[in-house]
Amino acid sequence: MKKIEAIIKPFKLDEVKDALNGFGVAGMTLSEVKGFGRQKGHTEIYRGAEYRVDFIPKIKLTIVAEDSMVDKIVSTIMEKAGSEKIGDGKIFILPVDDAIRIRTGERGKDAL
Amino acid sequence: MKSRKLSPLFFNTIVCFFLISMTAFMIATAALPGMATASENQVLDKAIASYPEALFQGKSQDDIRKELPVSGAYRDETTPIEEEVTVIIDGNPATTSIVRYLTDMEIFQYRGDVLWTCIAAFLVFLMQAGFAMVEAGFTRAKNAVNIMMKNIMDFCMGTIAFLAVGFHIMFAGPGESLFFLGTTGATQWGFAFWLFQCVFAATTATIVSGGVAERTKFTGYLAYSFVICAFIYPTFGSWAWGSLLDGQGWLEGVLGVGFYDFAGSTVVHSIGGWLALAGAIVIGPRVGKFDLNGKPRAIPGHNLPFAVIGGFLLWLGWFGFNPGSTTTFDGNLARIAVMTNIAGAAGGIAAMAAVWFSFKKPDVGMTVNGFLAGMVAICSAVDVVNIWGSLIIGAVAGILVVYSVIFIERILKIDDPVGCISVHGVCGAWGTLAYAFFGVESFSSTVLMAQLIGIGVGFAWAFGTGMVLFIAIKYTIGLRATREEEVTGLDVSEHGNEAYCGFPIDSHA
After folding, report:
1. In terms of domains, do B48 and B181 share one?
2. Structurally, how many domains does chain B consist of?
3. What domains are there in chain A, each with its CATH number?
4. How far is the C-alpha of B208 from the C-alpha of B217, rounded, in Å?
5. Where does the Ammonium transporter AmtB-like domain start and stop, copy by copy (chain B) (predicted)?
């Protein structure tokens, strides 16, 4: 079992979600986050004074899936969230020890 | 509010009536040439005979004279008026003064004056909502409740202060008491006039709140609102506008031509702007406004649509502020409304162009300041300018306000969160000066000097008393919130309220 954390541009969310749903990813968790990478921030102007916006709004998708699904999920996110421009985001993959469904107590892949 | 061309009441109808009676007498006396010089009584009798009997209600002149109000300002539709009548007896004109009651037409005019003045006052009252929204929109979410409370309380405190003291200072004649409305309270017109003056006084106080927003201690704010409406605004007002009632202001006759400010570019707006300047200097900039090198940092407002709607409400209010300043129900109000509108539109376009040119984007905040600046500037000469005059006055104000905001922030290092020093102080002074160029038929250096004296005295009075007031508050009840309160936001620390409970707020903003 792996946890996939994908940080993507907010306006790509619907495309990514629909594509993942299409091949059986049953659940995901979404967070509104802010951050910067190589894109850095940008400059805005307010009443004649410039100011830096260092942290740009992004969406973080968290998906826990069986190992066999991971490659397909990653390639789908890369395809749907990519615009070939700087600031498309990153994907992190972490090992997961266990998963538990609170209502029934099921564990492991049955809980996904 | 100031009118040279129209006396506040009845002017037109009195002139009409006078002309009619003159004509009647010229016809009546033409048939009686060569008689001896007329006696006083003969003249009076002839004069009385020229009016319909109903206007004397069967009373003698002496009896009616006892009912005369103290002055024209205490009129009621049932009180008599006094007028000069010239009659021709034996080919010689003779003038006498008679007292009589109002004609139906004059009563209608009187009620029109009361109605229009009240409606205009209601519109000016709406400017309180406009100021509240502009100020809240241009500042941070954590201080929105505080801004609302200040705008509520400066109107409430201002009303009571103006009722108790301010109205007396501004308009009382020698030996007269207008505390708590005084004798004016006995007439309908007194109430209409007071209401219109009261909303003007409160406007001055509420201008200041924008300049000291996001860092002022609430109790300090209450104290200065009261002092402004009780003392600072009415004193300057009495110098410039006292004769609208029973006072006599020295600026009204300065240099023989008098200082001219029709609706208050200086009396209301500059006074408010210079008070805000004093306040912003004494209280200092917000935490984080300037970096260690003194470079200003933007502190973006949390709700620009809110600020724009506030700006529109102020624009609507201005249609009462300027056209209502005639305090007369007549055809002139449409012209004044149009000139007000032209100046506002020109100011908005000019400010947008200036900020677009200098900063590459048409900034909405500056554009709102621009149309407000245009209407601030036009107040002074709005009843006498032509269309080109109001276009130029508004456009110059729109450009002026953009660079004034930048100058005050970058060069003077003064933190004015909403730009009220530039909009009201600087552009009010510009508009007052512009009267000398666009408000008179031929340029006169005496008029220019009179305007400059008014602008200078306004600055010295408002800035001087403002500095004394704010420093006095600083060392007594305290003027500034603590750093911790300011960083937390005045909503929670001063009022225990949240403006947007349940909505996520960026706590780093």
Report:
1. no
2. 2
3. 2-111 (3.30.70.120)
4. 14
5. 116-500
